[in-house]
Amino acid sequence: MTATKGLEGIIATESSICSIIDDKLAYVGYTIDDLAENATFEEVVYLLWNRELPNQEQLDEIRQELANEMEVPDAVIDHLRSYDVSKVHPMAALRTAISLLGVYVEEADVMEKEANRRKAIRLQAKVSTIVTAFSRIRQGKDPVKPKKDLGFAENFIYMLNGREGEPIEIEAIDKALVLHADHELNASTFTARVCVATLSDVYSGITAAIGALKGPLHGGANEQVMAMLLEIGEEENAIPYIKEKLANKELIMGMGHRVYRSGDPRAKHLQKMSEELTKLTGQEKWYKMSVEIEKYIKENKGLPANVDFYSASVYHSLGIDHDLFTPIFAVSRMSGWLAHILEQYDNNRLIRPRAKYTGPNLREFVPMNERN
Ligand SMILES: CC(=O)SCCNC(=O)CCNC(=O)[C@H](O)C(C)(C)COP(=O)(O)OP(=O)(O)OC[C@H]1O[C@@H](n2cnc3c(N)ncnc32)[C@H](O)[C@@H]1OP(=O)(O)O
Ligand SMILES: O=C([O-])CC(=O)C(=O)O
């Protein structure tokens, strides 16, 4: 029995949601390039859950369902106010709030297909409200209630800032949500599938997934990228900084990927957005610095920039707090997690691999009075 460290290259399930073939990414057959340029986030949510793009009527319906379900129970808001928010990372707050939501909502443990779809709508709608409410509360402000006539990205910006977004902000957030929505069997999605394959409930699967996304080797990398750019400070420091990190065998956040070799097809869209938004806000140095780092790492380590690399300067130039970058990833990836959870329920088998044992051989039990 040999072990494959990190399960690299292991085909662990069949899925009809997302493909990565020869470094090309598609959601249900539609390339990420087409979707990034032409689809809204709500269209992508519909696509991931139904495996077809919505017609206008279906799109209107899912938009309305999401807007209608955005409010969260007072108990969840009260909970966000109940601890020292200055000491809690928003991903920890989100993980706990989603778990708490599972206690207050109806049907949490009802496993019927239609009930699970209703739960999917509620979770997708409410994740945005929780992230923005936490952000407002820690600024000493009241959460802003969602508006039923706004789209998903519009409501996110409205609830975050207490004002409706400018068209360029709405477009940027909507596109970022489209780009992060799903990614095959990434660590957090796999976590969600492992959890619900025990026939546990949707809230448990999503809570587990948020925990996995939080780590800096996965979704948490986008916040770390911005921390790195700030530490570098000025463009001329970028390459010496990177050289030193590499010499110390430290990771360059936002670089490398388990699956992509030539490049992450989402990165170029975020790069373009970063170029435009940093220019518009007079913060081009973050973009220029990122381009230099990407080039150096590609040439010297053969590693491509991943989705987290340019999203950092995109969100920064939109004035978003750096520790909200990963929660925004979660707001988007909620759609993919839910698609995979529903797919897992539809064709379930317990996920239970084996471990190659490397400990001591069988031995005599040692009574307490004979132990060192
Ligand atoms: C949304 C997402 O989750 S995208 C990924 C977000 N994560 C990051 O950006 C964190 C930085 N990147 C990494 O840590 C890795 O590239 C991962 C976790 C994404 C992929 O990891 P793996 O597939 O396990 O790659 P692995 O660790 O085997 O790397 C292969 C080699 O490249 C090196 N390497 C990989 N990524 C990096 C990096 N970002 N900086 C420096 N070296 C790196 C490794 O040290 C290793 O070198 P070695 O062969 O000399 O030991
Ligand atoms: O697929 C992965 O391993 C990580 C990733 O890029 C994602 O989750 O978007």
TrEMBL record:
Record carries keyword Transferase: yes
Keyword Repressor appears in the UniProt entry: no
Biochemical pathway: Carbohydrate metabolism; tricarboxylic acid cycle; isocitrate from oxaloacetate: step 1/2
Active-site residue numbers: H257, D308
Reactions catalysed, as given in the entry: oxaloacetate + acetyl-CoA + H2O = citrate + CoA + H(+)
Stated family: Belongs to the citrate synthase family.
Species of the source: Pseudogracilibacillus auburnensis
Name by which UniProt lists this protein: Citrate synthase
GO biological process, one term: tricarboxylic acid cycle
GO molecular function, one term: citrate synthase activity
Gene Ontology cellular-component terms listed: cytosol
Gene3D superfamilies named in the record: Citrate Synthase, domain 1, Cytochrome P450-Terp, domain 2
Highest taxon above the source species: Bacteria
Keywords, alphabetical: Transferase, Tricarboxylic acid cycle
